[in-house]
Each structure stands twice: as C-alpha cells, then as structure tokens.
Specification:
Blueprint (H helix, E strand, L loop, with lengths): L1 H6 L2 H13 L3 H7 L27 H6 L10 H13 L4 E5 L2 H13 L25 E5 L4 H10 L6 E5 L4 H7 L4 E7 L11 H10 L3 E5 L17 E5 L13 E5 L1 H15 L5 H11 L2 H20 L4 E5 L9 H7 L6 E6 L2 H10 L4 E2 L9 E4 L10 H6 L6 E5 L5 H13 L2
Parallel strand pairs: 2-3, 2-4, 4-5, 5-6, 10-11
Antiparallel strand pairs: 1-7, 6-7, 8-9, 9-12, 11-12
Helix pairs in contact: 5-11, 6-10
Length: about 425
C-alpha cells in the first residue's frame, strides 16, 4: 500500500492525507494530523528536527517535484506543524512563524497591503500612501486588546498610511457605524487580553463581509480545543503558539490558518520578505506540547471555573470576570461559540495598596508575564503588560489600576485556592 501511495503525484498524496486527518476526532488529530504518515518518512515515530537551511537534489527534474528549497519558506518539521494546525482549525492551510506578534503582523499585511512584485523603481512613488489620501486602508478593532497588538496597529501602522478605528465590538451598532468603503479589516481578539471580553465572531464577521472586507481573529486565549473562528465566519485565524498550544513555557511561536491561496501568498511573499521564521527546534517543541492540548484545556478550564467562583464571592475581591460565570456580560455568546471557558480570569481588588501587598503574598501562583503554561501565572496588569500604556489608554480599555490577570495552570485547584485565600485574608 505504501508503494502504491508513493506512485501518486505529491499533491495527490497530500490531499489523501489531509482527508484522512479530517475524519479523525479532535484528540486523535492532535496526535496524528501532519505526522501520520509523516511525508517522506524516516520511519521515526516522532517528527524529526530538520536543522537545515538548504535542500539539495540530484537533478532539476527532482528539484521541481519537491517543495522544499530553503528553510525560510519551507521546512519538513514545520510542515507537520502547519498541517496539524490547519486540520485542528478546520482550515485549508496553516503557516507557523516566529511568534504570535509575527503572525498578527503578517496576517494583517496580507489584507491591508497589496502584493507588489517586479515593479520598476520609478513607479515606487505611486505606492506612497500620501499620494492616495482617499484610499487609506482602515482597520476596525476592539477598544481593548493585547498591548503588543495595540502598539502595532495604533503606533506603527499609522506611519504606514493605515488608519485604526477602535470601538466596542460588543456593540454591533458601533461596529456597523465604524465600517465604510475604505475598511479592509475587522480584527478581533476573543477572549480579549487582559479584560476577558467576549466578542461575537459570527455577527462581527457578517458586518465586515457585507462591506467586502475581511475578518481576522486572534484565538490565543481559546486555542482550537475551545474555539474555531474559521467555522464562525473568520477569514483568517492567528494564534500565539507560545501559549496554550505549546503549553510548557519553553519556546516562542505563532501561526496563521485560513484558505490555501491566502496562506500561499503570506508564505511566499510576506514571510519570505520579512523573515519572521520559526526555528525547526521550536516547531518540534510545539509539536511535542500540542499532543496533550485537549486534556490540558479541559483541566485549565475546570480549574479556572473553581477559582473564578471562589474569587467571585470573596469580600476582598471587587470584581471577577470569567466567561463561565453567569455574571459575565457575554456569557451567552461564550456558550454559543466556545465549547469550554478557558483558563484565563480577570479580577480587581479594592485599592492599589492592597494590590502591591497581595501579589507579594502569593506562593504557589508565580508572578510573571505570558500565559497558557502548566504553571499558574499572575500579573498585576498596570505594572506588567500594561506598563507601556498611558493611564488614559488603560482607562479607555477598561483596565483599572487594581486589575490582575490570572492564567490558571494545571496544579491541584485546592492548592491554588488556598494560595489565593491566604494572600487575600492578609490584606
């Protein structure tokens, strides 16, 4: 049977494998998709690390039949990860890159900018945005999102002739009013970092599609184990592989998933030009971590639910925000588009003095940026990921001076609750 498969053209073999993987259950896809059988397999159970920059062939005919040329665009270790991510998200293709921010930037550029090639130097002036003030592309996005994304679209993109409009994406009338004929992109992060806002992907996608634009969803806080934005109307989905998908806090990575044509353009134009390439070793680490994603997300979610309920009724806690709580303003939307509620909690204390003392009293829960690890991590938002924001920016994003972001890990929930209770009771 193997010999018969090898007689088929490469593209046909890949299609057969993809169809095979798509029929599997999610937890089986985590193990097998992209890796069973591994393309041009060396019969290794685990995907090898291809630490190479170039691929050599005996003839031009052989070279043309293969798609590995240079590791800035293709690598067999990354191939397995790309195929797995596409399968998990029910997308046609995937592309793994150096970080979550690289994924966001490359995906946005593929929508906001034109793919321009073989342009004579004297015609470059025609591309300057200042020469076309009536054609400035516009992004509509939520008023609150990850600070790295916020800096990219509010500080860097305006210098490239791109306008950003920040609105409350929970208010569909605001979204509709913000979209006009120049709006090319609606960017959604849900659940949103750090305030745990939940955005209706299907409703927002319809609004931008009605105007001919595209929707990109940052799915980092949910992962494909909990939410699949492409099935809800998104055109592209981005993930920080650094977080839940890898899950072990030992490497960086990002991914873009969507239609084949768009992903081909991003790979061979935007990625190849800008060079935000994921290393084969990091791809291997992420492949190792992703095998347990389904089980981990169930435990992250169940632990977070117990802790959110504890915080919600503690008199030292001012507010608790978690999609699984009925008090969350978008609880019904979360139930509709997510199959669980994830491991991220936002909460506030009553005063800054209490915050400073509280974070120093924690023992089991570690103070640190990032999220999605097996280890629980907490950050005091205004002094950590929010440190680059002005006070008025934090207020506009509903980030208070007493806000905490808790990434609930896989420890025994009783130990985590005991740690929180001991700290809170000493305030």
């Amino acid at each position: 049977m193997v010999n018969q498969e090898n007689k088929k053209p490469k593209s046909e073999r890949e299609q057969d494998r993809q169809k095979k993987w798509e029929k599997l259950g999610f937890d089986t896809q985590l193990i097998s998709a992209g890796e069973d059988p591994y393309p041009e397999t060396s019969h290794s159970l685990r995907t090898p690390i291809y630490a190479t920059k170039s691929y050599v062939y005996d003839s031009l005919t052989q070279l043309v039949k293969n798609h590995y040329y240079y590791s800035r665009t293709e690598n067999p270790t990354l191939y397995a990860l790309d195929k797995k991510l596409a399968t998990l998200h029910k997308g046609e293709a995937g592309l793994s890159v150096a970080s979550g921010m690289a994924a966001i930037h490359l995906a946005c550029m593929s929508v906001l900018q034109e793919r321009v090639e073989r342009l004579r130097p004297r015609k470059v002036n025609n591309l300057y945005p200042q020469n076309h003030p009536n054609e400035i592309p516009i992004i509509v996005t939520h008023k609150n999102q990850y600070t790295g994304t916020y800096r990219l679209i509010t500080n860097i993109y305006p210098q490239m002739g791109i306008e950003t409009r920040k609105v409350n994406l929970n208010n569909l009338d605001e979204v509709k009013d913000a979209i006009d004929e120049q709006t090319k992109l609606l960017f959604i992060e849900t659940p949103a970092n750090p305030t745990v806002d939940i955005i209706d992907i299907k409703a927002c996608s319809k609004l931008i599609h009605d105007n001919g634009g595209k929707c990109i969803v940052d799915n980092t806080w949910a992962s494909p184990a909990i939410q699949k934005p492409l099935t809800l109307g998104a055109d592209l989905v981005v993930e920080s592989l650094t977080k839940y998908i890898n899950g072990h806090g030992d490497c960086l990575g990002g991914a873009i998933i969507g239609p084949k044509k768009e992903l081909r353009d991003i790979r061979y134009y935007w990625l190849e030009t800008q060079g935000a390439v994921l290393s084969p070793f990091n791809a291997w680490l992420i492949l190792r971590g992703i095998h347990t994603l389904g089980m981990r997300m169930k435990r992250h979610s169940s632990n977070a639910m117990e802790i959110a309920q504890f915080l919600n009724f503690h008199d030292k806690v001012k507010t608790t925000v978690y999609p699984g709580l009925e008090s969350h303003p978008a609880h019904e939307i979360a139930k509709k588009q997510m199959n669980d509620f994830g491991g991220m909690i936002g909460f506030e204390l009553h005063s800054v003095d209490e915050c400073n003392k509280f974070i120093e009293l924690l023992d089991q829960i570690k103070v640190g940026v990032s999220l999605g690890d097996v280890t629980s991590l907490i950050e005091y938002t205004s002094l950590m990921t929010g440190i680059d924001l002005a006070s008025w920016e934090r207020r506009s994003m509903n980030i208070s001076d007493t806000h905490f972001r808790l990434s609930v890990g896989l420890e025994d929930p009783k130990d985590l609750i005991d740690d929180l209770e001991d700290a809170l009771n000493q305030l």
